[in-house]
Amino acid sequence: MDKPENSAALDVIMSRRSVRAFTSEEVSDEQVEKLLRAAMAAPSAGNAQPWEFVVIRDKALLDKVPAINPYAAFAPKASVGILVCTDPEYEKFPGYWIEDTSAATENLLLAAHALGLGAVWTGVYPDSQRVSAFRALVQTPERIIPMAFILVGYPQSLPKPADRFLSERIHQNTWSS
Amino acid sequence: MDKPENSAALDVIMSRRSVRAFTSEEVSDEQVEKLLRAAMAAPSAGNAQPWEFVVIRDKALLDKVPAINPYAAFAPKASVGILVCTDPEYEKFPGYWIEDTSAATENLLLAAHALGLGAVWTGVYPDSQRVSAFRALVQTPERIIPMAFILVGYPQSLPKPADRFLSERIHQNTWSS
């Protein structure tokens, strides 16, 4: 069953960083579809795929994001924003939607990096004010829960890979070893 | 800023599937370290990196997993189990740890696939019985929350890629469009 190690994929995982400064170049619809295909390839509890995505290109909407989340002040400079949401009605095993949509979001971020784009995850859920504000911004039904807002564009510069390895966070068989 | 598309990385994202049947070949310590390096390269709210990992190779422990989670009945056949946990004390922005540890878990699954290994995410949190049982199994302090249990081994066979793309889950600017 041996397969050669896919070092290009490991490189993408290890070198992905958050990108918050973008050029004016637009991300194409084809690229956005690749990002969403990657997101939807994520695992989910019972393979329920409980996600929904709102692709925001309307600058009038992106201009309103900094007032919703000051940590997303650069949103108006992004080419596109992707609001990752759940519809809890899709869940087969209730309560796992945060994990499912987070796995999808990480796939999306990695795919952006693989495409030479820059992206950043800005937090929405569980901040109830942000959840309500994004719901209002894109006019979702009340049952829809916005989980994260991802901004994507061409990076002004590529941050260097970070070494985040912490050997002390690894335990063998039991916590104390 | 253009960079060539890393299609090998996209392939790994698009072709990863859950693997639940393993050969008897053991995953090496070096491979496990690569998986954990990938996990720790994930983004987290405020870069808090609120994760801890328990690597379980002890067969006596793996044998106890099916009683904790019947959906992980194959755990004793895995070469290694990795319990992804949080220590909420690491959080800078409380409440985001599920998202952070889920992004780390997805990185781990993708890295396993990139290494030619097979892996599967089995659910722990928010099932309070499984959380308590895993906490007892590996003897964590009470504040530690086991989030997911990942089983890893050499795959008996590689499942074919699945097409999970659902165009109806994509909205443009607002929900109704």
Structure description:
Two copies of one chain form a homodimer. Chain A is an alpha+beta fold. Chain A has a single domain (17-156), classed as 3-Layer(aba) Sandwich (NADH Oxidase). Chain A contains six helices and five strands. A four-stranded antiparallel β-sheet of chain A has the order 1-2-4-3, sandwiched between helices. The longest helix of chain A has 18 residues, at 97-114. Chain A is globular and about 50 Å long. The two termini of chain A are 32 Å apart. The model of chain A has no long low-confidence stretch (mean pLDDT 96). Chains A and B meet through α1, α2, β1, α5 and β3 of A and α1, α2, β1, α5 and β3 of B.
Taking pLDDT < 50 over at least 5 consecutive residues as the criterion, the unreliable ranges of chain A are: none
CATH class of chain A: Alpha Beta
**Strand fraction band of chain A?**
15-25%
Helix content of chain A: 25-40%
Secondary-structure element order of chain A, as H and E? HHEHHEHEHEE
Number of helices of chain A: 6
Question: In angstroms, what is the radius of gyration of chain A?
Answer: 17 Å
